[in-house]
Amino acid sequence: MGLVCIRFNFSWTKLGFGLNPVPTFAPRKVNPSELMSSIIRIRKGADIRLKGRAHAHVSTAPVSGKYAVQPGDFHGVVPKLIVRPGDTVKAGDPLFHDKYHPQVQYLSPVSGEVTDVVRGAKRRILAIEVTPDGKDERRTFDIPDLGKASREDVLALLAAGGWFGFIKQRPFDVPANPDVTPRSVHISGFNSGPLAPESGLVMEGRIDAFQHGIDALAKVAGAGGVHLGVKSGDATFDGIVGVNKSTFEGPHPAGNVGVQIHHTWPINRGEVVWTMHYEDVAALGDFLKTGTYAPERVIAAAGSACPNPNHFRIRLGAQVQSLLGGAAFDASNVRIVSGDALTGKQIDANGYVTAFARQLTVLPEGNKPKFLLADGWLGLGFDKFSLSRAYPTWLLPKTKEFEMDTCSNGEERAFVVTGQYEQVFPFDIYPVQLLKSIMVNDIDGMEKLGIYEVAPEDFALCEYACTSKIDVQQIVREGLDTLKQELG
Amino acid sequence: MKFLENLLDNVRPHFEEGGKLSRFWVVYDSLETFAFTPGHATHKGVHIRDGIDLKRTMFLVIVALLPALLFGAWNQGHQYFLSIGEVGLSDPWSAMLVDKMWIGLQKLVPLIVVSYGVGLGIEFIFAGINKHSINEGYLVSGMLIPLIMPVDVPLWMVAIAVAFAVIIAKEVFGGTGMNILNIALTARAFLFFAYPKQLSGEIWIHNIAASKGGGMLVDGYTGATALGHLASTVGKDMGSAEVQSVMSMFEPDGMFSFSNALIGVIPGSIGETSALAILLGAALLIWTGIGSWKVMGSFLVGGLVMGGLFNAMELNAYMTIPAWHQIVMGGFMFGMVFMATDPVSASQTEMGKWVYGFFGGFLSIMIRVFNPAYPEGVMMAILFMNVMAPLIDHYVIAANIKRRERRSAAVSLPATA
Question: Which end of chain B is more exposed for a tag (fewer CB within 10 A), N or C?
Answer without folding.
Answer: C
